[in-house]
Amino acid sequence: MPITIQNGLPAREILENENIFVMDEARASSQDIRPLEILVLNLMPTKQVTECQLFRSLSNTPLQIKVDLLQTSTYTSKNTSQEHLLSFYKTFSQVKHKKYDGMIITGAPVEHLEFEDVEYWDELCEIMEWSKEHVHSCFHICWGAQAGLYYHYGVPKRPLPEKMFGIFHHSIQRPKMPLVRGFNDRFLAPHSRHTETPVSEILARPELELVALSDIAGAYIVSAKNGRQIFVTGHSEYDALTLDAEYRRDKAKGLDIAVPYNYYPNDDPSQIPLNTWRAHANLLYSNWLNYYVYQSTPYDLSKVDK
Q: What pTM does this model have?
């Protein structure tokens, strides 16, 4: 089944060229199906790249998905054109009257700041508070996961001595959870961050469950016990070349950045990396949409959180 996106969104042509089934709003409105309504708060600087990555991940289920894109009003992106933002993104004031089956809060390159020092922190807190009664299940990514764990459960982040950067093995800690149904006992996923959420702090919160863990990268998947909030500290949605682009960007800036761990063949940046995590990334999003959204969200969206 397709993912439904706004008419004219540039991601459509890219995804169709990859043989991903995309439907525009006009065609979707003619079908007698209630699609899952998903809100994406995109905090990443390269918003169009993130749009494509998330749409790929959301498209691999039999469910019809309708996506609304959300931007902050208290901070304006410097890396995405105003024309694109005005054409395809909403602000919180435009959606806060609505209810959604699911919501995704992306990462953001603000890890060096304390949460309260982030320019849009108050607005993000308002959105996360609103999500408790207006969103059936919320999926947080990387810094978005750290922010959600901090806001909802008081779990702090702490700086790392060097960037957690590469492709890491993970093991399942809660094998009976639907979120990891079908996963291998060990699986790969990308990380790209300068801070971490301590495992001890997660285990100290009885409302949380540690679902997947890496011996090197630490906590990867954390879930509220009711499944209404999912926190993923890595970037399962990343493309094969995303870490390569980040590595070359930082090298060009003269930053002291290590070669991404377990990424390039023979750790040689001149070789083309392979995507070794795509299957589990697709399964993670499919399981979330199926078991935590579709199977339990009310048909009448006005009854979300009732």
A: 0.89
